[in-house]
Model the fold of this input.
Amino acid sequence: MNTEQINAKNVSTKHISVKRYMPDSSAEPYWQQYELPVDDSTSLLDALNHIKEQLDSTLSYRWSCRMAICGSCGVMVNGIPKLGCKTFLRDYEGEIRIEPLSHFPVQRDLVVDMAIFLEHLAAVKPYLIDDNPVKPYDPQAPETYQQSPEQLARYKQFANCINCGLCYSACPQFGLNPEFLGPAALTLAHRYNLDSRDHGKKQRMAELNRHEGVWSCTFVGFCSKVCPKHVDPAAAVNQGKVEAAKHTLIALFKG
Amino acid sequence: MMDKLAMNKPSMGKNSTQHKQAFDEPLWWGLFSAGGVCFAVFLPAVILFIAVLLPLGLLPAEALSYERASTLLFSVPGFLFVGAVVCLPLFHAAHRLRHGMFDISVGNDALNKKLMYGGAALLSIVALGLVVAGMLG
Done:
């Protein structure tokens, strides 16, 4: 393999500044700089692991899968929300500043409290709700959950969310008002509303059609830019506005 | 902390006012969208005719003479034209201003809403009222 050649050729030293916050020893966050060897294949998560193992065992951060599917290693890189495992240091010149995800309370170093995000997720009932009165649930029925490729295609893109929370750090409206349900929750609501097997749209519309639902979105679109799975939450939220408007019109006529 | 997240909690019993439906928002958003479309579709044509072609003398001299212009304006199509290039864009601008003020934390949203949409409604009534007055007069 020529990987070693490439690695050997491109080993260099980089400086990473990490915003540290350790409430046990200091009330104020502070910046700490680390110097470490990197090559073309070093991801930010590799770098953080190197710091933790070789330089400073007090550094705290979350990580698990290393392959952009668990969604736990989200941090701010030079002010932009990124997944540590999907960000490569070869793409950065000069100083690299790492901070915990914006708009969330910081617990320690790069670890944030995502409780409010999980509350918003739970509020939109992001699971199949099957209360179809025409066809009551029958575990023996083989065709209960059949779905055509066309029906799958309607929501497939919006189903790729890994709940990493990068879109919440990118969203200025969530920053201004943490009660805003936010990009990922609204996208997941839309994903289940579009699912042919689901019958829970009415319950979800009550959440979506609040001021803190779709109507707090001003279509900034940064959520879609930072999404590591190309889910395009901005599109989902704005399709949600059309749905909420339809829902309101129908409610007006039905009384 | 974790018990707060219980998914199966019966529809968040916190308080029902938090779940108040935003019945007005679809209206503002609809006017905003319609205004945006009119901005994009009609105003460039208006600018082309009134601000470019006319001053350059590329239109026949009497294309927008006083008589012709007032007959065009004070008519049902003129009424619709004013609605499309004045009223709807006014609501578009009001919506943007309201959200912009929220973004920079100026005033409070409930009051801004009344001021912005109220202002747009007032100016719309003046504009359409002038057309109606011209049609009657």
Chain B has one domain: 27-57+65-136. Residues 1-14 of chain B have pLDDT under 50 and may be disordered. The helical segments of chain B are 25-41, 43-53, 66-73, 76-103, 109-136.
